Amino acid sequence: MTDWGRGSYELTASQSAPVAPLVIDAAEPVENLKLLDLACGTGNAALVGARRDARVTGLDGAPRLLEVAAGRAEAEDLRVDWIEGDFHELPFAEDSFDVVTSVFGLIFAERPEQATAEVARILGPNGRLAITTWLDEGPMAGIQSIFQKWVGPALEQPAGESDEADEAPPFDWGDRDQLRMLFAEHGISIRCDRQALTITAESPEAQNEAWFAHHPFWLEALDLLDESDRSGLREECLAGLRAANEDRSGFRVTLPFLLALGSPV
């Protein structure tokens, strides 16, 4: 399991910050309502909700990121309850929240069925859900493929160590039909809208180096690979960023994603 408190994920979180108000907009009205932001990270969506007078709880599994989020809230004199926890086993009673949000967080659930069941359990009967998921296309999908090519073999279990030889393929959070079916099984109807996030940097080289120096995924990859494979991964990621670059005087890419909105039925 990735240690999200490692490195400086807040640098990546700052690039995805424009998505947070879109998610809270989709969940409106939130004033005076109990809002839970799952895998809240450094607090982007939780803080937007608090600024709009929601009664916000932010939950994340990384204590360091919660400290960053708490510092941001304190700087703005915003009231948010920050809780360390696992979205597979939420520490809340049934029907505890009016609104549940997650900005590219719930998608990292290792057990999607269980995490979704927990969301359905704590969401009130008149509640609203708003989450974002990456689509399996565009620059992000290309980088993920490169990452899997180099790191995937190092993550595989040795033969004979698992009783689940015929495991189903990983759940595709970017597949609208799979997403609808997953939530429908737990009594939540959703609709998905296509959106896009633009991220920028000084250059493809700067973006690549920022990932390898600060992002938990890339730091984990460096631990798993030998020096030759580390160099290969760096070079191929950089080539992918250069190919996807939309601004030859700097760096800009457009990343498509789904905004999934739902409510119990």
Q: Tell me the structural class.
A: alpha/beta
SSE order in H/E notation?
A: HHEHEHEEHEHHEHHHE
User: Could you estimate the helical fraction of the residues in percent?
Assistant: 40-55%
Number of strands: 7
Largest beta-sheet characterization: 7 strands, mixed
The coarse silhouette is globular
Portion in strands: 15-25%
Given as residue ranges, the uncertain stretches (5+ residues, pLDDT < 50) are: 157-165
Alpha carbon gap, first and last residue: 33 Å
- Please tell me the overall pLDDT: 92
**Strand order within the widest beta sheet:** 3-2-1-4-5-7-6
Describe the protein's architecture and organization.
The chain has 265 residues and is an alpha/beta fold. It has ten helices and seven strands. A seven-stranded mixed β-sheet has the order 3-2-1-4-5-7-6, sandwiched between helices.
Quick recap:
This protein is of the alpha/beta class and about 260 residues long.
Layout of helices and strands:
Blueprint: H1 9-16, H2 19-27, E1 34-38, H3 44-51, E2 55-60, H4 63-75, E3 80-84, E4 97-103, H5 112-122, E5 123-134, H6 138-155, H7 176-184, E6 188-201, H8 204-214, H9 216-224, H10 227-244, E7 251-264
Parallel strand pairs: 1-2, 1-4, 2-3, 4-5
Antiparallel strand pairs: 5-7, 6-7
What characteristics describe this protein?
10 helices, 43% helix, 7 strands, single chain, 265 residues, alpha/beta
